[in-house]
Design brief:
about 50% strand; 7-stranded mixed beta sheet; single chain; mainly beta; 4-stranded antiparallel beta sheet
Amino acid sequence: VQLVESGGGSVQRGGSLRLSCTPDGYYYCMGWFRQTSGEDREGVASIYTVDGSTYYAASVEGRFTISQDTSKNTLYLEMNSLNVSDTGVYYCGAGPYCSLSYINIWGQGTQVTVS
């Protein structure tokens, strides 16, 4: 079981980044979660792959977009208007439901730094 992430990096405030996640199989829910220094991991955006319904944290709504490309079996997180507070390690996760407590498969994480 594996989720392979790519993307991330360093960007100036107001900039954009795109994260990608390629799973090794099908998962009912996939999402992006982040952990900032000293804080618990939190949900950022998630998608139910069966119907494409999406969910966003209030702090990123309108700035981030989660999407899936079924032809490439890839999950994306397009991040725009990045703030310093968006800095953290972003994890791709998967599970039966789009709630943090039900996410049981994790990628290795990718660092996003906004300065």
